[in-house]
Amino acid sequence: PPPPPPPPPSPPPAPQGTLPPTVKLPTLHLKKRGMAHDRQGLVHVVWGLRETGRGDGSYELDPAFDFTAREAQLAVVDFCQRLARTPKLKVSTMLCWPALLQDYLSSKGKAFPTYVLSTVMTGFLDQAPNWVKDHLDLAEDGSVMWLSVDYHVEFDTHSSGLTIKPFMDTWEHEVAKVNEDVFRSYSGSESSLGLGVAASEMFQRAEAESRVLGSALSSWLVSVGCALAALLVFTRSFSLSAIACFAMFATAACSLFFITAVFKWSFGLMEAVSLIIFCGFSVDYPLHVVQAYVMERSKGSGIRLALKEVGWAVASGCFTTCGAAVFLNLCTITIFQRFGQVLIVNMVFALIFALVWIPATLEACSRRKKGDEGKTCRQQESDADTGLALHLLDGGTPSASPPALHHDRLTMMPGPAGLEVEAPEEGFAALDGGTPRGERWK
User: Fold this and answer.
1) What is the pTM (predicted TM-score) of this model?
2) Are the CB atoms for 172 and 198 separated by under 8 Å?
3) Cβ atoms of 151 and 84 closer than 8 Å
4) 42 - beta bridge partners?
5) What is the pLDDT along the chain (442 residues), one digit of tens a residue?
6) Fewest CB within 10 angstroms: 26, 61, 191, 404, which?
C-alpha cells in the first residue's frame, strides 16, 4: 500500500502581543421545549357511557355500546388520530390503546379490525403497558364495557376557571365535530360506538368556578338581605339599618377593588367565596356602633358617647382578627395566603366605615335635624314679633288679637296694660331675687 500522506504543517506561532484569529462557532438550532409535564393538562375521551337523564350531570353504562363491531374499532383509531392532529387542542402526547391493539395484531400477522376481539384482548393485555388496564373494563364474556383515550395538552392546569372555560368549549366543539366526521366515514359506528365525551379535572373546576361566579351576586344579595333583616330587628329603624347596610356594601366594594386593582388577582372561585363569607364580617362592626347609638339616643345622648362605649371594643376586635390572619400569610399554600390578605383588607375597611363614616353620617343627620327644628322655632318667633308689632301699631284693638309668642322659658302675649311675659320656674322670676316664681310681669 502507498505510504500515508504527511501531516499538514502546523500554523506559525502568533507574534508576541497579537490575538489569535477569531473562530466563528456554528449556529445551534435548538428545538423549542414544551411545557413542563407536571403542569400539562390531561383530557379523557370516554365511550360506552350515557347520561342518566336526572339533570345532575351523572352518567351510566350504555347497553348499546359494542366495541366488537369492526366499524367501531376503526372509528376509534381514526378518532384518536384526527383529534391529535387538531392544532387548537394543543395535544402533546396521546395514549390511545386501540392504536396499540392495531400494532399488536399487525405484529402477530393478524388483521385489524378483528372479529374475535374478546379472544384477542387477553393476549393483548398481557403484553400491553400497565396504563392500558386503567382505560377499559371487560365484562365476564371478555367484551369491552367502556373505553377511554387520554390526551396530554400543553395547557397550564394552574390557570383560573375563566381561562380554562374557552379551552374547554374548544374541546367540546372539536370532539363533536370529529364525532360527526368519523360517523360519516364509518357507517354504522354511531349505533355501536356512541358519542365520545371529553372530560378533565380542570374542566370540572372551570364548570364549578363559572357556576359559583354566576351565583356570587345572588348569594351576596341574599347575605345583604339577611343582614338587613337582622339590623332591623336590633335597631328597629329603617334609616339606621340602611346606613349600616351601605357601610357593609362599601366594605365589599373596597375589598373587591383591592383584589382586582391592587393585588391584581383574577376574580375566581376563592375570591367570590371570600366576598360572600366576609359579608358576615362586614356587618359585625357597623351593627355594634349603630346598636350603641340607639341605646345612647334613648338616654338623650348621641354618637359621641356611643363611640366611647364601643369604639375601643370594636377596634380591639379588628386588631385581634387581623393579628390571627397574619399567620395565614406565612403559609406556603397560595389559597391560604390570599384568604389571609383579603381578610385583613376586609376587616380594616369594616373598621374604617364603622368608626369613621357611620359616626360622621349620624352626627351630620343629627345636626341637620336640630338645625331644621331651630329654623322652625326662629320662624315662629319672627311671625309672632311681626303680629305683635302690627297689633301695637293698630292701637291695641282687642279684635285684632295677635298670636302669643312661645319660647323654651318664656311666653309673651299682649295684655290690657301692654306686653305680658309669663315666666315659669326657670324664667325671669328665677333671675330676680325675691320675686315669687310664676308671677306675671307687665
Assistant:
1) 0.59
2) yes
3) yes
4) 152
5) 677 777 777 666 655 555 555 556 555 555 555 677 778 899 999 999 888 878 777 888 898 999 999 999 999 999 999 999 999 999 999 999 999 999 999 998 999 999 888 888 988 999 999 999 999 999 888 889 999 999 999 998 888 788 899 999 999 999 999 999 999 999 888 888 888 889 999 999 888 888 877 787 788 888 888 888 888 888 888 889 999 989 988 998 999 899 989 998 877 777 888 888 888 888 889 989 998 998 888 888 888 899 999 999 999 999 999 999 999 999 999 889 999 999 999 999 999 999 999 999 999 988 887 765 545 444 544 555 555 444 545 555 444 444 444 444 455 555 555 555 555 554 444 445 544 444 444 3
6) 26
Burial of 1 (0-12, 13-18, 19+ CB in 10 A): exposed
Please provide residue 5's backbone torsions phi and psi, each rounded to the nearest 5 degrees.
Answer: -65, 150
Count the Cβ atoms, other than its own, within 10 Å of residue 279.
Answer: 22
Cα–Cα dist 396/371, whole Å: 35
Which three three-digit cell numbers place residue 140? 365476564
What's the per-residue H, E or C state across the chain? CCCCCCCCCCCCCCCCCCCCCCCCCCCCCCCCCCCCHHHEEEEEEEECEEECCCCCCCEEECCCCCCCCHHHHHHHHHHHHHHHCCHHHCEEEEECHHHHHHHHHHHCCCCCCCCCHHHHHHHHHHHCCHHHHHHEEECCCCCEEEEEEEEEEEEECCCCHHHHHHHHHHHHHHHHHHHHHHHHHCCCHHHHHCCCEEECHHHHHHHHHHHHHHHHHHHHHHHHHHHHHHHHHHHCCHHHHHHHHHHHHHHHHHHHHHHHHHCCCCCCHHHHHHHHHHHHHHHHHHHHHHHHHHHHHHCCCCHHHHHHHHHHHHHHHHHHHHHHHHHHHHCCCHHHHHHHHHHHHHHHHHHHHHHHHHHHHHHHHHHHHHHHHHHHHHHHHHHHHHHHHHHHHCCCCCCCCCCCEECCCCEEEEECCEEEEECCCCCHHHHCCCCCCCCEEC
How many CB atoms neighbour CB 228 within 10 A? 17
336590633: which residue's cell? 234
Which residue has cell 356594601? 249
